Amino acid sequence: MKLRHNPASPYVRKVMVVAHELGLAGRIELLNTAVSPVEVNATLAAENPLMKIPALVTDDGQVLFDSPVICEYLDNLSGGGKVFPSAGKARWTALRQQALGDGILDALILCRYEIAARPEDKRFAGWTDGQMKKAHQGLAALEREDLSGPRTIGAITAGCTLGYLDFRFPNDGWRQRHPKLAEWYRGVEALPSMQATKPPAS
Ligand SMILES: N[C@@H](CCC(=O)N[C@@H](CS)C(=O)NCC(=O)O)C(=O)O
Q1: With pLDDT > 70 as the criterion, what percentage of the chain qualifies?
Q2: pLDDT tens digits for 111-144?
Q3: Going by C-beta distance under 8 Å and a sequence separation of 6 or more, which residues neighbour residue 15?
Q4: Ligand 1 centre distance from Cα of residue 54 (Å)
């Protein structure tokens, strides 16, 4: 399998944490890929018309995106029902938690692009404030979730979300606002799968 990859992407990190947790990381060839919301990457476009990473090319030549789909594919490859509970309340809880973490990331990424990719004279503070509000409300909701127990896609996504906050928004202060989440994350960031996928120094 080949994965369109960049170590700074939290969605790519989700996929790689899942791969490590399932013992599949060694079967994935990483293709380092630069992306930009405003520039065309023709090579990537041939695989993912949305020109986003992660995108996975499977051994039989199928291209899968986005991160929830790739993560579920990997779970299936290793027999299924491991990080994606197969049915019932456990499944819906894990999927909701994944959607919450992904949604926080989507808001944070929009803030990041506003700050890092848009020319200074075209920036709109109201936009960044609005997205940051979503991210903060999402974090408050994450604090109320039960993330203990078996490591599901919900917990993995939450871990990668908090890792991205530390990476790109180190002064956010989320630990002060959410001590329960901070305590939970202390254990999670020490996991081998999280250590193996740490973003580069920013
Ligand atoms: N929903 C997608 C989001 C992927 C995404 O936004 N990836 C970013 C990198 S962190 C990207 O490729 N951005 C390029 C762009 O927005 O054009 C997923 O879960 O995989």
Answers
A1: 100
A2: 999 988 899 999 999 999 999 999 999 999 999 9
A3: 3, 54, 56, 67, 70, 71, 74
A4: 7
- Domain(s) labelled CATH 1.20.1050.10 in the chain stretch across 88-191
List the CATH code of the domain at 88-191.
1.20.1050.10
Mean pLDDT throughout 2-27? 98
Summarised one tens digit per residue, pLDDT across range 135-181 is 999 999 999 999 998 999 999 999 999 999 999 999 999 999 999 99
Is 54 in contact with 3 (CB distance < 8 Å)?
yes
Its CATH architecture, for the domain 2-77, is 3-Layer(aba) Sandwich (3.40)
The first and second tokens of residue 165, run together, are 């906050």
Does the beta carbon of 154 lie inside 6 Å of ligand 1?
no
| Short-list 50, 68, 63, CA closest to 14 | 68
Å from CA of 71 to ligand 1 middle: 15
CATH 3.40.30.10 domain residues, the chain: 2-77
User: What is the 139 CA–ligand 1 centroid distance (Å)?
Assistant: 20
CB distance 67 to ligand 1 below 6 Å: yes
Pocket test for ligand 1, best of 53, 70, 153 (most atoms within 8 A of CB): 53
70 C-alpha to ligand 1 centroid (Å): 13
